[in-house]
Structures are given as C-alpha cells and as structure tokens.
Amino acid sequence: MILTILGCYAATPRTITNPTSQVLEIKNRMFLIDCGEGTQVQLRKHKLKFSRINHIFISHLHGDHFYGLIGLISTFALLGRKTDLHVYGPKGVKEVTLLQLKLSNSWTTYNLYFHELESTESQVVYEDDKVVVTTIPLKHRVYTNGYHFQEKSGDRKLNIEAVENYEIDTAYYQKIKSGGDITLDDGRVIPNEELTFDPLPAKSYAFCSDTVYTESILPIINNVDVLYHESTFLQSEEQYCEKTMHCTAQQAATIAKKANAGTLVLGHYSTRYGSIEPFKQEALTVFDNVELADDGKVFEF
Amino acid sequence: MILTILGCYAATPRTITNPTSQVLEIKNRMFLIDCGEGTQVQLRKHKLKFSRINHIFISHLHGDHFYGLIGLISTFALLGRKTDLHVYGPKGVKEVTLLQLKLSNSWTTYNLYFHELESTESQVVYEDDKVVVTTIPLKHRVYTNGYHFQEKSGDRKLNIEAVENYEIDTAYYQKIKSGGDITLDDGRVIPNEELTFDPLPAKSYAFCSDTVYTESILPIINNVDVLYHESTFLQSEEQYCEKTMHCTAQQAATIAKKANAGTLVLGHYSTRYGSIEPFKQEALTVFDNVELADDGKVFEF
Fold it and tell me: Could B92 and A79 be called an inter-chain contact, meaning their C-beta atoms sit closer than 8 Å?
C-alpha cells in the first residue's frame, strides 16, 4: 500500500505548498483522492502515470479539494484517453464539470461516469475482487465524505514444502490457495491448514478530511491500518475549529487512539504555521504512531 | 508599460510551463489577461500584488485560459479582499463561477462584477481617464475576444523656462498643460505651443490569443505599439491551423507587418516543440521586431 501526498495544505495554493490531493496505490489499483488546483502538475512532477488513474474520489466541493478536477479531466481528453473514468463526489460535481466542458465546447474522448453522493449514511461506492471503498460521512461546512479503502483478504499462501511432500499435482494449487482440503489418491484427506499459511493481512486506509472532531466515524474506521486525518490547527488555535469545522492535531490523535488505528498521518495544515513539526509533537502526546504528510512525501505501509 | 508573462503555452499545464496568463501594467493600472490553472501561484511567484488586480480580462472559455479564475476569485475571498473586482469575458463565465461558489457554499468578501461579452463587433469594455480597453473579435473554435489597451494622451509637458520667462503664475499651469493659451496682464496672448512640449506618446498593447489567421483584426490593432499574437505552430505544422483554429509564427508576423505594429511578441506555443527559438526565426523572415514570450519573462515597453 503506497500513499503519495501531492498536496496536503489547507485553503490557497502557494508557491511552496499545494492544496489537497493524494494517490493511494492498493492491490495494484491507483486511486486519486481529492484534486485541488494544480493536481495534474503534481502528478506529472511525481511521475505518476495519468493512464493508471481510473477512479477519482472527491471529499467535498471546497476549492482546495476539487478545483483541479476539470483541468485533469480536460487534459485526459487532450491526451486522447480512451479508458473509462469514474468520479465519486458530492452532488453537483457532475453539473459543474459538464457546464465547464460545454462552455469550452469540449468533450471527453473517453466515457466519464459520475457517482454522485448525497447520503449521510456510510455506503459502499466501489468494489472489485480485491478492494472495497466505503464513504465516511464527515462533518464540515458543506456535505463531505471521507473514504475507507479496504483490501479484501487474498488467497492463502501455499506451503510449498508440504504440497511437494504429499506429491500434490500443481493443478490443485489454486484450490488449495482458495482454502480447500485435498483428498489424496490413497483416500487420506489433508486439511488445508497443513498445506497453507495465512494470507498477508488485508490492509485498510481511511481518508478523513475535512471535518470537525466527530466520534461518529469511529465504527467505520475501527482498527484501520492507516488513518489520514485532517489537523488544520494546533490546540493553541482550537477556538477556530467550531466555526471553520476543522480539527486540531490533538483531536486527530484522539480519533486515531479511539479507532485503534495503526498509524496516524496528519495533514491539511493551515498555512498560518511556519513549521508542521509541532503538529506531530502535539499528536504524540495522545497517540504513539504519528506521521506528518507533506507535499511529495511517499509512504509505504 | 510593463508586461509580465505568467504563462504562454497552449493546452495542458506542465511542470515546466504554464497555460496562458499575463499581467499588463499601464498608466499605473494592473490588468490581468487570461487566467489558466495555476495563475494564482504564478502571481505569487512573481511577487505581483493580488490587491492591485481589479480587472481581469478573459479571452475565451477554454481551460488553458480560464481554469485558474475560480481559484483566484476564491483566494481573494479567503484573504478578505474588500475592493471591487471586475471580470470581462464571454457569456457563461458568470454562471460557472457562481455555480462553483454555490457548490462550495462560499461567497466573496468583495463586490464581484461580471461584464459578459456576446458581440462579434469590437466594443469598449473599460474606460477611465487614462486607459481605454476595446475588444478584438477573434476567430477560434469558441467565442473569443482579444483586448486592445490604449493609453489616452496625457497632459502636455510644461516648458518651465518659457512660463518662468513670462512670469506666469503657477495657478495657470494646469490650464497650460491642458492645452490652453495664456493672456498676460499686458494683453499679449501667448499660444500654448510656446509654453509646452508634446506629451509622451500614448502607448497601446493588443492581446490576440487564440485565433486562426484573420485580417479582420487589422483595423482595430493598426499601429499598435506591442502586439502579442498567438503562434501555436510553426509553418511545418501549418496543416493543423484550420482545424484547431490557431496560427503559425509566420502568420502572426504577417499580421504584425500588416498592422504596422511596433513590436511583435509571440506566445501560445504548442507543447510539442522542444525549443521556442524557431518561432522567432520563422517570424523574423516576415517582420523585423520579434520577441518571444516565455513564462516569467518581463517586458518593458
């Protein structure tokens, strides 16, 4: 599971920082999460192939999370893309995208599907044989969802020594990896657990930005391996949280602790701060395993 | 007259080049012309004060000329701007901007005025005591206008030696600078030309992008001091001009020659070319005074 941070700062793009966008590579799929202005240039800068992005998840329609979407969609068309593209996001994302295409008398060279969200309940928005993506309803100034990416358990791992010992034909290997027992020619039944090891644990990632502190998300993100949680402010500016509906680093860490998360990744820092290191120090007072997102940073989990 | 090129490349933004946007400083006014994605970051990078931009002229609604507008408008609001902002551009620019603000449940902290254009005839869109801005109807795949910025003639320059010689009271200086004659106490009438020098010549700038080759613009840009004219292609790719409705460098130079322009500035280069120098060489075969726009370049005229 590889997470590349393209941008993780709040509000306005600057010469040195970018608004929210990140790429999650999981089970060989590449998901783009949020798409602030400049995202397409950040993708180029970090040499992430446009053609691998088939699914874009938008949390909410504040500019620092989606003003780069129309540019990316247009660029895909200019490059002659043929593969389907799916956009998941709040109701309205389709209308504004199509209006912009109409005004420029442009169209896409590929099928563009919108999956508009309106529900305030968690729902599955994407599922294939390896990954399932669920919304995490957040509480912000506009309708907002985080996204929970869950790997499905993979095949069991073959115990090569054991299967060779029993002289089992390779034709049965897939059955064994899928959990099946084997009946030998002499009638003996070999239980699966003698022939396999447990599969690698299925990993999960939760993206939670932007939101005020809310424990309503805990059931959805319980035991998540990696939690990206917004921390716009430090506790010293906690008085701004309620009005702006954002969190402090300490609040993000509290959520991580209560969710029993593996790792907490902080992001969506207000640009008022000269350094982001204090966010980590503040979160560490509550939760042990804290990482700081930063533009261009790549995490492997 | 100072022209700062924020971006001058066609189609998609890249790590090394930016889509169209430029700032014209004329008679102490600062006009933003076009606003491709990333313009607000380019403004920051070149230390151009946001607060000095009160008028934005959009040529057409292709993404590489206006996808940065909503971000800039939003950033102005986040920074608490109070001064009026005027946006001039094709019909539709208001609808899409307001829709984006509505979807993000945002509003501006300042008065935002749209001056939407639909006419295919040249028209005055801006005028104050020092500058007049006129549209230049262009021929492109969508409704497009260039803009002609014309300084008004300033006051005549006082010939200090002459006015002191005639012992004229300073109370009459403004009348003299405005072109008036003076009657002395002894009844003699001193004609204005004895008391003043000609004012500095009024300068003009024409922005023409994007357009196919069209001589219909010549009456509007005749004798312009500086002509920025798009040159998406070289003659070797001239076959693309008709379909895409763009020009070659040679065609741009032909327009400059026929318009009797002072200086031709080339821009809007297709990103297919590794170097822009051949654009200059090609244009020089037709017209003598050719400059190459490039991102970050500042011209003083």
Answer: no
Shortest CA distance from A91: residue in chain B: B103
Report helix, strand or coil for A46.
Answer: coil
Residue B154: per-residue pLDDT? 80
How many residue pairs bridge chain A and chain B with CB atoms within 8 Å of each other?
A: 105
Nearest residue of A to residue B103 by CA position?
Answer: A61
Listed in sequence order, the DSSP H helices in A166-240 are 173-177, 192-195, 218-221
| pLDDT tens digits, one per residue of B60-104 | 999 999 999 999 999 999 999 999 999 999 999 999 999 999 999
Q: What is the mean pLDDT of chain A?
A: 96
Closest CA to B25 of B157, B188, B249, B205: B205
- What is the per-residue burial (b if ≥16 Cβ within 10 Å, else e) of B143-173? bbbbbbbbbeeeebebbeebbeeeebeeeee
Q: What is the pLDDT of residue A10?
A: 93
Instruction: Name the minimum distance, in Å, from the CA of B84 to any CA of chain A.
Output: 20
- Tell me the per-residue pLDDT of B241-264, one tens digit each, with 9 for 90 and over: 999 999 999 999 999 999 999 999
pLDDT score at A185: 92
Write down the domain spans for chain B: 2-154+200-300, 157-197
Chain A nearest C-alpha distance from B169 (Å): 54
- Give the number of residues written for chain B: 301
How far apart (Å, rounded) are the C-alpha atoms in residues A275 and A237?
A: 15
Instruction: Assign domain A2-154+200-300 to a CATH class.
Output: alpha beta
Both tokens assigned to A133: 């993506």
**pLDDT (0 to 100) of residue B112:** 98
Q: Are A229 and A264 in contact (CB under 8 A)?
A: yes
Nearest chain B residue to A74, by CA: B63
Interface predicted TM-score of the whole assembly (ipTM), two decimals: 0.89
Shortest distance, CA B37 to any CA of chain A (angstroms): 7
Residue-wise pLDDT tens digits, A11-69: 889 998 999 999 999 999 999 999 999 999 999 999 999 999 999 999 999 999 999 99
Active site residue A64: yes
Q: pLDDT digit string (tens) for B226-235?
A: 999 999 999 9
Dihedral of the alpha carbons of A164, A170, A175, A178, in degrees to the nearest 10: 70
Q: How far is CA A169 from CA A164, A181, A199, A247, B156, in A?
A: 8, 14, 21, 57, 101
Tokens coding B48: 């151009």
**Binding residue per annotation — A148?**
no
- A14 → closest Cβ in B41, B60, B103: B41
Count the helices and strands in chain B (H runs, E runs): 11, 18
